[in-house]
Amino acid sequence: MKFQIVDAFTDTLFGGNPAGVVVIPDGKDYPEDEVMRRTAAELRYSETAFVKQEEDGVFRTRYFTPAAEVELCGHATIGSAYALMRFGMAQPGTVIRYETLAGAIDIVLREDSILMDMADPQAYGTIEGEEAVKELYRIMGIEAEGQGVWEKDPAVYLKPEKISTGLIDIMLPVKDEDELERINPDFPALTELSRRYDVVGVHAFTVNGKDGFIHARNFAPLYDIDEEAATGTSNGALAYYLYRYGILQPDTVNTVIQGEKMERPSRIATQIVLQDEQPKIRVGGLAVTLAEGEIDI
């Protein structure tokens, strides 16, 4: 089977978020689930995409972390779509479709970027109660007081909320970049909290970036991912969250900076498009290949 290691959401090697990509040969079916999980663990990246072409322009895609299968992974989607172009299985200037456990996803392939439609955004409720909010921030290693401020409009107070564009994460607002950098989670406690809230993890962010961009950090220890350098699904969810608060506007392409603490800075583009007055979320970026070859499974 062909494989690649791809850095997604960057145009520079050793930036962005790396993902494994395994292409299932024509006429072959997926290996057993445990084999794919162990393959993902052997590759040692947070997610590996296993891609099987169903028909021209349509690919069934499954995603495995070293611990378990997940329904969707944004950076592995961007990375695997780039790999398909490298392998000659898809062409720039076209739209391909991924059939995933989270539903069908259309992906626009361009020479300068790859943009993917996220699953329909859904809100699953804010974290309610003073003690619950304090517990959440305490587990993340910071205090809850004063974290939901938006400097452009102090009347807007952001609250921790569960949002999904394919995977459910807790959106965790913090007041500035310095506070974002100070986050130091209690990972065993965060694992239990993620299980209790039935979420993949916590996506911490600030809209008060010194450079005018949104800055974010993502933590998912429940799936053996302490921190990720770029997360497409989580930033898609963040775009929807900020749209609901009136911070992001339709059609504008916004930039999220992630991975700085890990010394793998990533730039993730997000866009909200209204279709029949309903918001659709797109997430995209660039990708580069680190390695490719054959894998025997």
From TrEMBL:
Domain of life where this protein originates: Bacteria
Protein name: PhzF family phenazine biosynthesis protein
One CC-aspect GO term: cytoplasm
GO MF terms, alphabetically ordered: isomerase activity
Signal sequence region: none
Organism: Hornefia butyriciproducens
Active site per database record: 47
NCBIfam families: PhzF_family (TIGR00654)
One Pfam entry name: PhzC-PhzF
Alphabetized InterPro entries for the sequence: Phenazine_PhzF-like
